[in-house]
Design goal:
The protein has a domain at about 5-90 and about 165-215. Helix content is about 55%, strand content about 10%. It has 13 helices and five strands. The protein has helices spanning about 20-25, 40-45, 50-55, 65-80, 90-100, 115-140, 140-175, 190-200, 230-240, 245-260, 275-285, 290-300, 305-320, and strands spanning about 5-10, 30-35, 85, 180-185, 205-210. The chain is globular.
Length: about 325
């Protein structure tokens, strides 16, 4: 009787502080499947034939410090004989659509029977809803912004479902050759676990590794790591037919405040202190204290403020309102 394969889906954010936790998990497996589309110079970078910074300049990356540290980790894994693959069919297909349009083709030229068509529709709908949300954020009433955000959350959830479904299907066919494998995934790709189990059948053992829960600076339930906007989107991923509820509206209202106070920039200098994780937990704790009316009042107050100013305004509001705001996690110190 042969042992079942072991597949670990590592859920993590793309922050420099997470690299040691990602590294520890990746080193335990024979193969690593990255959450990114194939790149032409990837193998050259892995083998050290192309400098990491030169390789990254060929890509459109959102988190340069994280990407640089990850590439160096991957070079070490490759040198030790690990197999490393880039598998993200949704993004790969989307990039192909961009090239298709750049060659002079139009949306009507996309084959309706191809995978390009549902990817194009999902991206068009989600991007359009996001633009409407941005417009509403700048000009609409509080309730108008809530409506736009709820609409975007539903279209974004549909995009996530398609993206995870495509990735699960491709991973299922490529995992066969390895006794153990690590699958990289962002924290919002929690549903990938069940989709991959369904695609692989029962011949494999598939586990979730929620890496943030291993950080020494935190404790608490897994749901503590998700902000209100992420919780709203996850709800629509799992329950796409659910009608709008008062709880949805509260999550959306809290999300508007959360988006203003969460730190966005990378902070690689003090990664050992987990500054982003502490900041995320602090922001999550504060907004969980807010009612719908609290969010309405605060939105008017912080709408034009920068991130540090907005955080202090929200923390002060929570404190003066009698809430137990987490003052120790002030954004200026993490």
């Amino acid at each position: 009787m042969t042992l079942k394969q072991k597949i670990v889906i590592g859920l993590s954010t793309h922050r420099p502080e997470m690299i040691p936790l990602i590294s520890e998990s990746m080193w335990r497996h024979e193969a690593v499947f990255l959450e990114e589309p194939p790149a032409d110079e990837f193998e050259q970078m892995l083998l050290g034939e192309m400098p990491v910074d030169q390789y990254l300049r060929t890509l459109d990356i959102e988190y340069p410090s994280f990407s640089r540290m990850l590439c160096r980790l991957l070079q070490g894994l490759k040198a030790a004989g690990k197999s490393i693959f880039q598998v993200e069919p949704y993004v790969e297909t989307l990039l192909g659509i961009h090239d298709f349009f750049a060659a002079g083709n139009r949306p009507d030229d996309i084959d309706r029977e191809s995978i390009q068509y549902p990817v194009y529709l999902a991206e068009k709908r989600a991007t359009g809803a996001l633009l409407k949300y941005y417009q509403a954020s700048a000009t609409s009433s509080f309730e108008g912004v809530i409506d736009a955000l709820l609409h975007f959350a539903r279209t974004d959830a549909a995009r996530f479902r398609l993206r995870d479904s495509l990735r699960a299907q491709e991973l299922a066919s490529r995992l066969q050759s390895f006794p153990s494998a690590y699958v990289e995934a962002g924290e919002m790709h929690f549903p990938l676990w069940q989709m991959l189990k369904n695609s692989c059948g029962d011949q494999k053992r598939i586990y979730l590794d929620f890496l943030a829960s291993k950080a020494p600076v935190v404790s608490g339930a897994r749901s503590d790591f998700y902000g209100p906007g992420d919780k709203l989107t996850l709800k629509y991923i799992f329950h796409p037919q659910k009608k709008r509820s008062a709880k949805d509206e509260l999550l959306a209202a809290r999300s508007l405040i959360h988006a203003k106070i969460i730190e966005k920039a990378e902070n690689p200098e003090r990664a050992e202190d987990f500054p982003h994780l502490k900041n995320e937990l602090a922001c999550n704790r504060i907004v969980r204290l807010l009612s719908h009316e609290d969010c309405r009042r605060l939105f008017r107050k912080i709408r034009r403020l920068n991130t540090p100013q907005a955080y202090r305004a929200v923390a002060d509001y929570a404190a003066t309102a009698g809430f137990a705001a987490e003052r120790a996690y002030d954004i200026s110190t993490v």
